[in-house]
């Protein structure tokens, strides 16, 4: 591994730890949020925004920018904190999360927050919007790409499978679907709620080029994103195996943290654990 790559991975790890700390602080202060799903997705978001996406915080509406859509919009906290870390808006604005008249709603709003490409939250819609974006780029002969992050439980919505068929039909190899495969959804595991497996085989049967990776391994994520398109003429799917509540020992793989708000003592313990990741002082 080159020294540049080692430094990049170290930087991603530090940024992700900082984003996780701010996210939990924001959720605890506001009394609103979905910490488990936020923490499972943050390594993916950090890798995208600081190593993959062609975006410019100073010009968030640039026509040639890559598009990223967070379909699991209830995890807006992860997106807001990543966007703030990247410079799309001031970090201090995170303190307004879910407050009256704040731009930072519980679900992201593209009309209010720089860097948000689509209003999401009702599950099953983000992939269809992403297919429309990718198709528009193909029709225009544009080089920008579309990435969409969905929750695994969200794939139980039938609209996703219509979108999957359309993406393959139109040969959208400029589209990348990332599945946050933490195996848990509201109240239970995905497999006990409505089984998804064999997920990779199902997606391949729909005409997608599929890879699987560890969604918390920065080197593996970088390698996967660098390989896009996986197969020319086929839309790309990266199944990222993650853990709900990643980074905090008492939250990991615990379905109760889907939308539970940490107490002050729990918050302090979580911040201590996350501070140890990059040896920074507790906030």
Question: How would you describe the overall organization of this protein?
Answer:
With 283 residues, this protein is an alpha/beta fold. It has one domain (3-278): Thiamin diphosphate (ThDP)-binding fold, Pyr/PP domains (Rossmann fold, 3-Layer(aba) Sandwich). Helices cover 42% and strands 12% of the residues. It is built from nine helices and seven strands; from the N terminus they run H-H-E-H-H-E-H-E-E-E-H-H-E-H-E-H. The protein has helices at 3-30, 35-52, 76-86, 126-140, 158-169, 190-194, 199-205, 218-226, 264-278; strands spanning 67-70, 146-151, 175-181, 184-185, 188-189, 209-214, 236-241. The strands form two sheets. It has a five-stranded parallel beta sheet with strand order 1-2-3-7-6, sandwiched between helices. Helix 8 (218-226) links the parallel strand 6 and strand 7. Helix 1 (3-30) crosses helix 3 (76-86) and helix 2 packs across helix 8. The longest helix has 28 residues, at 3-30. The protein is globular, with a radius of gyration of 18 Å. The mean pLDDT is 96.
Sequence stretches where pLDDT stays below 50 over 5 or more residues: none
Give the helix proportion (percent range): 40-55%
Overall geometry comes to: globular
The helix-strand sequence is: HHEHHEHEEEHHEHEH
Cα-to-Cα separation, first versus last residue: 32 Å
Q: Biggest sheet, open or closed, and with what strands and sense?
A: 5 strands, parallel
Using only CA atoms, what is the Rg? Answer: 18 Å
> What's the number of extended β-strand segments?
7
Helices, by number, come to 9
**Share in β-strands:** 5-15%
**Count of folded domains:** 1
CATH superfamily: Thiamin diphosphate (ThDP)-binding fold, Pyr/PP domains
In the CATH hierarchy, the architecture is 3-Layer(aba) Sandwich
Broad CATH class? Alpha Beta
Strand order of the largest sheet: 1-2-3-7-6
Q: SS-based structural class?
A: alpha/beta
Overall pLDDT level? 96
What name does CATH use for the topology? Answer: Rossmann fold
